Structures are given as structure tokens and as C-alpha cells.
Amino acid sequence: MSERAAPFYCPYCGDEDLRPSEERTSREAGAAWECRACSRAFRLKFLGLLAPGTAGSAPSPSPSAAPSAPDGGTP
Questions:
Q1: Which of 18, 61, 70, 72 has the most CB atoms around it within 10 Å of its CB?
Q2: Closest CA to 35 of 61, 55, 8
Q3: pLDDT digit string (tens) for 48-68?
């Protein structure tokens, strides 16, 4: 992975007109980017790799444990 990977779109407005920020940042802070469409600045930081089998392993409630509306419809 390169030191500074470029995002493809703004996480706020979805536009693709992004520029690297002139602001000097440390490697721990992450790369700073500016969106010219919505005038927002944001940082990207790589946190690390997930261990195999941990992605999406949050327990989901069973259908019988979910609360329902008094009339039997969805709440």
C-alpha cells in the first residue's frame, strides 16, 4: 500500500473534485484532503487489517426477540 492513497470521492457530498490539502500532517494523523465542491476538508487514516472471520460477526437479534407493534405489524 502506498503512503498516501487517494480517495475517489468526498465522503460528505460524493463529488470527485478532491485535492490534497496543503496542510502538513504527520503519518499518524492521516492524509488531509479538500473537496472543492462542498468546501470541506477531511482526513483519511489506515487503521489496519481485520482478523479473518471478524468482519460482520456482530450477533443479530432473533425474530422472536424483536419487539413488535401491538397490532402485530411492524413498529
A1: 18
A2: 8
A3: 888 888 766 555 665 555 555
